[in-house]
Write a structure and sequence with these properties.
Radius of gyration: 14 Å
Order of helices and strands: HH
Number of strands: 0
Strand content: under 5%
Shape: globular
Helix content: 40-55%
Number of helices: 2
Distance between the termini: 40 Å
């Protein structure tokens, strides 16, 4: 029998990422503090923004990795 794995990200967090991806596709997703930066074109950047927004809302998302 396969071992059941614990979710790393909550379902609510994945909804936030989905919303960010949708905004990127429509050209509405902006980078930077308060969305003052340019348009986000990168898929990876859109995912990172979605996770960051979920983190701010207090949803279950692992902490960001610290750079060395």
């Amino acid at each position: 029998m396969a071992k059941k794995r614990k979710r790393k990200y909550s379902r609510a967090a994945s909804k936030d990422v989905k919303r960010a991806m949708h905004r990127r596709k429509r050209g509405k997703l902006k980078s930077g503090k308060g969305g003052k930066g340019g348009k986000v074109k990168s898929r990876k950047q859109a995912i990172a923004i979605g996770l960051s927004e979920a983190r701010k809302k207090g949803k279950k998302v692992p902490r960001k990795r610290r750079s060395r």
